[in-house]
Amino acid sequence: MMRADAARNRARVLAAAEVVLGEQGPAARMDEIARRAGVGVGTVYRHFATKEALYAAIISARVELLLQAAARLRTAATPKTAFFDFFTQIVADAAGRKSLTDALRGAGVDPKAEQSEQRTRMRAALTELLHDAQRVGAVRPDIDMPEVLALLRGASLAAETGDYPGPVLDRALAVLFDGVRPPTARPSGGNRLSRAAELP
Amino acid sequence: MMRADAARNRARVLAAAEVVLGEQGPAARMDEIARRAGVGVGTVYRHFATKEALYAAIISARVELLLQAAARLRTAATPKTAFFDFFTQIVADAAGRKSLTDALRGAGVDPKAEQSEQRTRMRAALTELLHDAQRVGAVRPDIDMPEVLALLRGASLAAETGDYPGPVLDRALAVLFDGVRPPTARPSGGNRLSRAAELP
Amino acid sequence: MMRADAARNRARVLAAAEVVLGEQGPAARMDEIARRAGVGVGTVYRHFATKEALYAAIISARVELLLQAAARLRTAATPKTAFFDFFTQIVADAAGRKSLTDALRGAGVDPKAEQSEQRTRMRAALTELLHDAQRVGAVRPDIDMPEVLALLRGASLAAETGDYPGPVLDRALAVLFDGVRPPTARPSGGNRLSRAAELP
Amino acid sequence: MMRADAARNRARVLAAAEVVLGEQGPAARMDEIARRAGVGVGTVYRHFATKEALYAAIISARVELLLQAAARLRTAATPKTAFFDFFTQIVADAAGRKSLTDALRGAGVDPKAEQSEQRTRMRAALTELLHDAQRVGAVRPDIDMPEVLALLRGASLAAETGDYPGPVLDRALAVLFDGVRPPTARPSGGNRLSRAAELP
DNA sequence: CATGAATGAGTTTTCATTCAT
DNA sequence: TATGAATGAAAACTCATTCAT
Questions:
Q1: Which residues of chain A does B172 touch, with a Cβ-Cβ cutoff of 8 Å?
Q2: B193: alpha, beta or left, given left = phi > 0 and alpha = psi -120 to 50?
Q3: In terms of CA atoms, which chain A residue is nearest residue B156?
Q4: Domains in chain A: how many in total?
Q5: H/E element holding A154?
Q6: Please, are residues C179 and D179 in contact by the beta-carbon 8 Å criterion?
Q7: Shortest CA distance to B34 belongs to which of B9, B60, B5?
Q8: Are residues D78 and D170 in the same domain?
């Protein structure tokens, strides 16, 4: 019973921290996070030794979810779309957590042991999807992971820190993907960017 | 004559602030900035009433330079390349000032009167270059400013916050630009990404 | 149980602040007040959000005591002397807290909600005592609250900011009270001012 | 010509300081005083070595004026009224310079050499007027300088720091003076306090 | 285990005073 | 001599972290 309580508290703190960081940026206070979680500061510190550790845990949880999504895509989707779907999903995830990365970077969170292990797994997952896509000719062959990572990072940051309506993000991604595909994979005349659903 | 001294001090503070912010992020202390500039804290405050005001002045100066570059490109370069050159220049500028934007955003710098006026001018400059490029068929016609801004922001953020070797950034931009160009403007077989000069 | 500790700390801070303000005037530092109270500055700020708030709390406590004294006098003393006793007590209280008012005014303490509520109660208490005294002919009938308040303020300020030996204050008050009484209430020949106990 | 300029500047600074202190209290800044005087801070410091020295000079000028008034009254008025007139004048002067004394005391201005010399002259002037009045029976004989000084200080402070409409101050002073007069000098039935001119 | 009061180093900002021009 | 830019000590206030209850 104790264990359950502790676990619930940990989860509550994590959730509260994500919200508060999104709202207040890197300046968010531990007191406030505790208040939102409905616990005392002491409890926050019982679960996360340090503010930085708490922030790192948030990232960790996020990345874990994305990794699961990557695994799912690899089995469920065709190599032709899996890479693009994953890319899109990461960006959508970022857009849904406005300015969180910002807050985390502002807080000076460094890649620690666990994080760098996750980083490795993330890279591996992405590499697989990329190579699969290249094998079936869905992605141009002269592109490589470093570029992909840079493009992914840029897209995520723009989605997270900017305030773009969904369709704008979609079209920006479409442009990006057009650049990523081999010319032959583009429908003749190009992928006309859709403007239908644009919000006012 | 004193005015000259004051102006020099102002410039020194601005320069020191840019450096220190780049190094230490939003947490940079006013004391440190003053020390680097070789002046007392009081002098920093004489020129910039507030930490936030100092940060705003840095952005302002940066944007001003870019606006001048835009004007220069419009006369000196052909519409075919001006847009891409400007885009590239902004990203290079961002790359050269690692984590400054970060620091600025972390400091909660708001778009103030002057800033928002600059924002307007920046949009105008970019719009001109974009339309010029579309007119001569260098940029696909179904792309519009919102997407361009999102792509630009993403590229700048990636360049600024990431630690990519130059060639990686170049290739990522090349991919992006391929997506921006109309299919007809791409050499058949695509723009082969160059790998020659890659740094270790 | 912690609450008891917190309350003790609050009281300590209040007491220390009263002392330090009396000694050093409005320029007293929060650090020093904390040191005297034997707590950290943070604790001072936990209990009083602001220097001004701390000062306001001191006044509040003082006035509360005087209000209790007024209530006591109304039941315990005869209307003939109660007014004069209360007046005297206020002045004595002021004399006992040298330069505190000074410090408080210097700090720009404004009448806030609670304060102005106290102010109202204080006026009410004084008004009752005044009217009682006038009803029994102990105070001239042509005097009214505004004058009484002005006289009281003057007497308190003199007592607080000046450095008068007790007998001097007593005689000054005696003169004042002679002016407040109806001529008939003065012993023929006036109230001879006592000089017996004068200190050097 | 230089001398005249310097003297004008000194006077300007003095005047500006009096105004600014009255408005902003002890916290008034030297910069602001200089600005109001239409000179640079450096000039303020040329005339007054220290903030405290400036404040002392203000008091000094004030007292000098009052001393001249005392001398004038001694020749021009009858002993019967001269004392009361002087007392009234000091209080009126205080009322006209709201919170200046406050500012000065708050600034920790100490009695310096010059000041204490003035203090002596002030006491002497008041003593003369008091004794003259006692000789002609206008002031009760059992009152002495210490009480008078205490009463005067109280009245001045009340006038300066309070916000009493003129008639209230007048009536308060009338009460005070009734206490100061021998019973025989009060018209039978007392000096009815006038209520005629009271402002709404 | 949870709580939240206490701690105090750390930061921003102010302002009297100095001094180069 | 006047000016006002520069100085930097001082002071208010914050907040991550600890620890008694």
A1: 146-147, 150-151, 154
A2: beta
A3: A154
A4: 2
A5: helix A145-161
A6: yes
A7: B9
A8: yes
State which residues between 8 and 67 of chain C bring their CB within 7 Å of strand F. 27-31, 41-42, 45, 49-52
CB contact burial C69-94 (16+ within 10 A = b; e otherwise): bbeebbeebebeebbbbbbbbbbbbb
Domain range enclosing B85: 51-185
- CB D146 to CB C105 under 8 A? no
| Interchain contact B151–A (C-beta under 8 A) | yes
Residues of D in contact with C192 (CB under 8 A): 142
Which chain C residue has the Cα nearest residue D105?
C102
Q: Is C81 near chain D, with CB under 8 Å?
A: no
Chains touching D by CB (3 or more pairs below 8 Å): C
Question: What is the per-residue pLDDT across D148-162, written as a single tens digit (0 to 9) for each?
Answer: 999 999 999 999 888
Residues 1-20 of A with CB under 8 A from B: none
Compute and round to an integer the Cα radius of gyration of chain A.
19
Quote the pTM value.
0.81
Structure tokens at D8: 């004008």
**CA terminus-to-terminus distance, chain C:** 52
Residue B66: which CATH number? Answer: 1.10.357.10
Please name the amino acid found at residue D110. D
Structure tokens at C125: 């208490």
Task: Quickly list DSSP for C1-42.
Answer: -HHHHHHHHHHHHHHHHHHHHHHHGGG--HHHHHHHHTS-HH
**Residue B110: band (very low, low, confident or very high) from pLDDT cuts 50, 70, 90:** low
Distance B33 CA to E17 C1' (A): 23
- A149 and A195 in one domain? yes
Q: How far is the CA of B41 from the C1' of F8 (A)?
A: 7
pLDDT in tens, A75-133: 988 888 999 999 999 999 888 776 666 666 655 555 555 667 888 899 999 999 999 99
